[in-house]
């Protein structure tokens, strides 16, 4: 097969000889997909159905038609992919390739994104219509790729699409998970987890690269020898080798300008079957090595509650990091001949600490396998690696026990020790090491058992370290990396996150896209900054009506999903109040649920008041071992059952918790939102990207001054948001003062009524004690300031009600939100990375 990723061979090898129409058009700047008419494409779909799917039109299922259409589209993508990797391959000092290492790539469904970016949507629609098939219906038969969990993975997907759009040569590296994190369902309101077998029906977008296989080693011991000149050599003698097999998915940029590669590694055993054991009757034992190896790429974030689970997570992180670096070095040597020039031709971005072992692994590869001396290897490593931090929470800042690293990666532990010693020794000799700071800047945390701080390792081994919002970056400098920042004051920079407008505006909200294009012209699709021109129409009653009509249609669509999935009927003209994100205490779904109970009680006590009808929508998954998060899900579902079945409440309030939140569900939920809940405890959310998606689509934000909410408020105007609660500084002061949550509780009879209802079992009559422990813990220790912020949150929600009654003013602010959000495009973020970090 033609090696797309390597840019080798001639066009004739790909089946398109010099002088062919495709090559002629390509040389003229017109990729082949622009020349396809509907009739030709219809024939191609038919051919793929028969010869690749193996079905006739008479026997084909809807899924068969989807696969045939996807194969036909992929064929068009390959032409552009070849051109991207061959004609635009990095060359010379001015063209770098970006390697983006991430545990997650939450890419969602790809058919709509690809045909939209290639400008093929109308062609595909017409081609399918001629076969009696609706493209809108066909999209639903594609399964979401289960390659991520939340914001980290969706950000990585946005960045990959934006790098292709902005013509940055890039490869995304990750793991090809067989089952993702899990498929979520509810049983009696409790979260249930099942494998998400997302590839059961086949994945039409990927190419398996069976020739791209790299050995990844574990365990064993290290031999040391010294030659006659006194040079010391280390040889790692592992006791296990796992093979990393590459699977490539094309990432198509807007207008098909570039197609980059998402390369995911599948784990395979070096010896999949011990035939002697099998023939001896030990059929299970003969495949033990295979099961152990393939477990690495089975599940995203396996529970680390057990020692085996903890080790598996480490094996996963090293597996994809090692395979990716080997692949990068292999390609660089082939093209440039020497690894000494790696920093001039490649930039590696570590997306969080999961790939932080890249520091030790790149040093190992350079020193042990390619013969560089330590200082030169360190120059190459620190000139190539960059690190993005995504969290300030101590429990989320990865550390690994020294004993586990010595067992699983003994050579890497040696390298980490040496990096740390040289780091501290160098600072000491330069007179920059304050003995009082030794513990805080060392890579080894000596408290509560010896652990390696992966954030510190990534910091020391990287050229640049970035936060993901202005507030987050400032806090990085003051908290997590305070002492390191004082020593290396130019290393930390800010790169505020962004979202791809193609997915979260063009594709997710086609009605709004059509309205904006009809108002501003087609150029807005290429220049999102043109959205600012909508400001002049924010007070226009006619435009407000059109804007509101788009929202109503989106709410009708979401109401239909709620009815079909939950058997709950909601009023689409009600205010849709939405919080969808990973379930975590700091994201404060619990605060939202408590306010929902308070609102229910208020309506119940005074049903004749003119209440604003409201639909509360929740969605999100809790980690399988996160007991409290799962209890919050159960609470939300208990509240939904109570509220939705109460005839006194009627349509004044409805609650819906939609199961199995993923990208496709988000695409239906976000454009339907009137109110976006971004209510994390101030100082705890690094950035957020859901807040950007909602605001771009015109939802008004209720939130704290946390993460990127701060910058969103600066761009769209704080007066167009509902900001409430303690600030970051006030949260820290509250924690330092050791204030008792009972003090705040004593002043709120409303909250006391809510907590009493929970403690006494009114919400859970089948188990009166179910939430007693949750409430007692909240009252005795409230690290997420739920009790402190409840009153301000209730007041802000009543301000929402008041504004909703003034529809003209609501829609004015909604239009301004959309008009002023273009800065939060991930295209802008990528350009910032290119200019200030990657120099690509």
Automatic annotation (TrEMBL):
CDD domains: GT35_Glycogen_Phosphorylase. SUPFAM superfamilies: UDP-Glycosyltransferase/glycogen phosphorylase. Its cofactor is pyridoxal 5'-phosphate. The keyword Heme does not apply. Keywords: Allosteric enzyme, Carbohydrate metabolism, Cytoplasm, Glycosyltransferase, Pyridoxal phosphate, Transferase. GO terms for cellular component: cytoplasm. Pfam families: Phosphorylase (PF00343). It is found in: Cytoplasm. GO terms for molecular function: glycogen phosphorylase activity; pyridoxal phosphate binding. The modification N6-(pyridoxal phosphate)lysine is found at residue 693. GO terms for biological process: glycogen catabolic process. It is an enzyme of class 2 (transferase). It comes from the Bacteria. Gene3D superfamilies: Glycogen Phosphorylase B. InterPro entries: Glycg_phsphrylas, Glyco_trans_35, Pyridoxal_P_attach_site. Its EC number is 2.4.1.1. Allosteric enzyme that catalyzes the rate-limiting step in glycogen catabolism, the phosphorolytic cleavage of glycogen to produce glucose-1-phosphate, and plays a central role in maintaining cellular and organismal glucose homeostasis. Phosphorylase is an important allosteric enzyme in carbohydrate metabolism. Enzymes from different sources differ in their regulatory mechanisms and in their natural substrates. However, all known phosphorylases share catalytic and structural properties. This is Alpha-1,4 glucan phosphorylase.
